[in-house]
Specification:
With 165 residues, this protein is an alpha/beta fold. It is built from five helices and five strands; from the N terminus they run αβαβαβαββα. It has a five-stranded mixed sheet, with helices on one face.
């Protein structure tokens, strides 16, 4: 009986020791496939981004910044790809996280992009969008269906094509 008590005490101490060494878990930040995407009301302009009630139409929401070469190049790649697709199937909105409007405007001009669906979130990393979408892990894209549900994240043209077919 004494041996059993001793083994139990050692086991409890060992369990406490091991659990103290594990990192604390926390809720994951950002939105993931299957989540309902939040409506974006305003980006410092009179218009917002609405991807709900589009009867089967997908929305590609892409976050980028001029200071992030990879996200900027991906924005151009996605924009050129989506612009060749049927606009009744998919629409793209790009949100720049550049704090300076002049940087945003000049970058859009240099990249030959249409300003109609390009937005600038001038709060940058302090933006509620930056925090809500978990962009501290990296700028990226979200493919959203007509019901406002995120279908995929960090998509490339090949994934868009396969997801829409």
């Amino acid at each position: 009986m004494r041996i059993r008590t001793c083994v139990l005490e050692v086991g409890c101490v060992l369990l406490l020791f091991l659990s103290a060494g594990t990192p604390k878990t926390s809720l994951s930040q950002g939105y993931h496939p299957g989540d309902l995407a939040p409506r974006i009301e305003s980006l410092g302009v009179d218009r917002g981004i609405n991807y709900l009630n589009r009867s089967g139409r997908y929305t590609l929401l892409n976050f980028w910044a001029a200071y992030d070469a990879e996200s900027r190049a991906k924005n151009v790649l996605l924009w050129n790809y989506v612009s060749k697709m049927d606009s009744n199937r998919i629409e793209m909105y790009s949100v720049s996280m550049d704090e300076r409007a002049s940087v945003f405007t000049e970058t859009v001009k240099m990249d030959n992009l249409d300003l109609s669906n390009q937005f600038n979130e001038r709060k940058g990393k302090e933006s509620p969008l930056y925090k809500a979408f978990g962009l501290h892990k990296g700028l990226g894209s979200f493919l959203i269906d007509g019901n406002g549900v995120i279908v995929a994240t960090h998509v490339d043209p090949q994934q868009i094509s396969s997801l829409l077919n």
